[in-house]
Amino acid sequence: YWETTPPTISEKNQSRTFFTQKATPQFLRSIARFREFPESDVPEVAFVGRSNVGKSSLLNALVNSNAGTKSAILARTSATPGCTRTMNLYGLGPKDGGVRIKPGKNNGHDRIVGVGGVLLVDLPGYGEGSLAEWGAEIMKYLTRRKQLRRVFVLVDALHGVKEKDLSLLAALRLAGVPHQVVLSKVDRVYVPKAKRLDRISKGVVSKLVQPLGTLEEARERMLDVKETIQPAVGAGALGELLSVSAEVRVDENRLGVDGVRFAILRAAGFRFEVESASGKQKMGKFSAGSRSVYVPSQREHVSAVDGKKNKMVWA
């Protein structure tokens, strides 16, 4: 974190509670063309990256409990690149209604509705292995969709940033689309020491996980990515770099997933509650905002870079 502040433990807990207990996830629709998108009252975030970078696995990890079951599976995963071929919409909202598509009356337009929710959009991967050319319709969505609050660009932690990643980041930057980079599959390069380490794959829990790498090596890798994704002049991706594993659990929680949950809710306009003097805490709530609005939590009143330019804060 070099331009923003990292989430507190309380904010991570609120994010986890929303995704795994307070909200009901459901698949809404697959879309091939931008003009097929329904009108919407719900803030959206999108996930994009090279083929087989782990977008669908991350979406499933976001909404699953830590029990290692197959419940709440949203997106189909595959080892074959190009598994996601359409723009897939997943609603995540309160259990008293959730995010859903309301059919239009008298041949009117459908509409996505759901107070207090967020729409997750899984985009097809780009690169070799995709069955269709990745291009025009997806860029229309990324650059024209007014409800889109942030694009999460996934980069494989082992292979790093590739030319097509840089091309996409440049296009998003040129169009003024809010975006940030997430290092996926970080367990390929770093797994911290912990009291308990296990792996969840297709609903099966395995305890055959060992610590890997060092924190300093992970830091250097992330600093290299930071230098690559930040342009020499002008604004680039959001000034925080997240790393995540959709499979490895560290002391009961998937590695880095709570940080992504927090980033999604913050982008969507979720106001996090701070703990009162009595120690009691309420769940936060969503507030309306435009595409470009960043709604900070109540604690963010100090410098996000710890008083020094480009000094990264680790969480």
What features would you describe in this structure?
This protein has 315 residues and is an alpha/beta fold. The protein has a single domain (9-286), classed as P-loop containing nucleotide triphosphate hydrolases (Rossmann fold). It is 23% helix and 22% strand. The protein has six helices and 16 strands. The protein has helices spanning 9-22, 55-63, 136-144, 163-175, 215-229, 257-267; strands spanning 23-31, 39-40, 44-49, 87-94, 100-102, 111-113, 118-122, 148-156, 179-184, 197-201, 204-206, 242-243, 248-250, 253-254, 270-271, 285-286. The strands form four sheets. A seven-stranded mixed beta sheet has the order 1-4-7-3-8-9-12, sandwiched between helices. The chain has a four-stranded antiparallel beta sheet with strand order 11-10-13-14, with no helix packed on it. A hairpin with a 2-residue loop joins strand 10 and strand 11. Helix 1 packs across helix 6 (257-267). The longest helix is centred in the last third of the chain and has 15 residues, at 215-229.
Tell me the span between the first and last alpha carbons: 8 Å
Lateral strand order in the biggest sheet:
1-4-7-3-8-9-12
Low-confidence stretches: 288-312
Biggest sheet details? 7 strands, mixed
Radius of gyration: 19 Å
The structure class reads alpha/beta
CATH 4th-level superfamily: P-loop containing nucleotide triphosphate hydrolases
How many domains, in number, for the residues? 1
Overall 3D shape: globular
Could you please say which CATH topology applies here?
Answer: Rossmann fold
Task: Give helix % range.
Answer: 10-25%
How would you spell out the order of helices and strands? HEEEHEEEEHEHEEEHEEEHEE
**Count of helices?**
6
